[in-house]
Amino acid sequence: MSLLRRCHQTQVALQFVELNTPVSIIALETGLSVPMLRRMYIEHTGQRPPRGVLPFSADWFLQWRPNIHASLFANLYVDLMRTKLTAPERLTAAYRHYLSELACFDDSETLLSMARAWTLLRFCRSQILQLTPCHRCQACYISAAYQPSNNFTCGICHTPSHAGYRHRSKQLHT
Ligand SMILES: [Zn+2]
């Protein structure tokens, strides 16, 4: 790796560190070594990096609340495809947008960690998941791959009866 490229990749790695990304993902995205990234993490944050990536199931992204978060992130990522950002830069930029969008809502729990966002993109690239337009509202949501859009209804247009339960019960106890 040339010195200039190494400098650039170090800047990209810092973006990932600031978003609490597991070192194994940063290494894959930047080509920098795991020991160097561990040192960078500790120097930059004063803390140990989060543990590696657990094997997430694609089904997690299809559950009602996670699906809203995953779809928000995926749409933000797709919007950035038009820019000249590299794929790792696009990932950190989309994730920052996701966090800032969440900050606008009351129930702003960050369901999608950076590790999950990264895994989501891998599932989409492997054609396990995809963005599908809802036939009612036309907005795009994460669905199983090869989902025909003419009969796909998103979680907002078709809210399951239990969807608001968790939020309501939280309010009752505060
Ligand atoms: Zn819809």
Automatic annotation (TrEMBL):
Give UniProt keywords alphabetically. Answer: Activator, Bacterial flagellum biogenesis, Cytoplasm, DNA-binding, Metal-binding, Transcription, Transcription regulation, Zinc
Please verify whether the record's keywords include Zinc-finger. Answer: no
Q: Name one Pfam family in it.
A: FlhC
Single GO MF annotation: metal ion binding
Q: Is the keyword Metal-binding assigned to this protein? A: yes
Family annotation (InterPro entries): FlhC (IPR007944)
Set out the biological process GO terms recorded for this chain's protein: bacterial-type flagellum organization; positive regulation of DNA-templated transcription; regulation of bacterial-type flagellum assembly
Its protein name is ABC-type cobalt transport system, permease
Q: Which organism is it from?
A: Zymobacter palmae
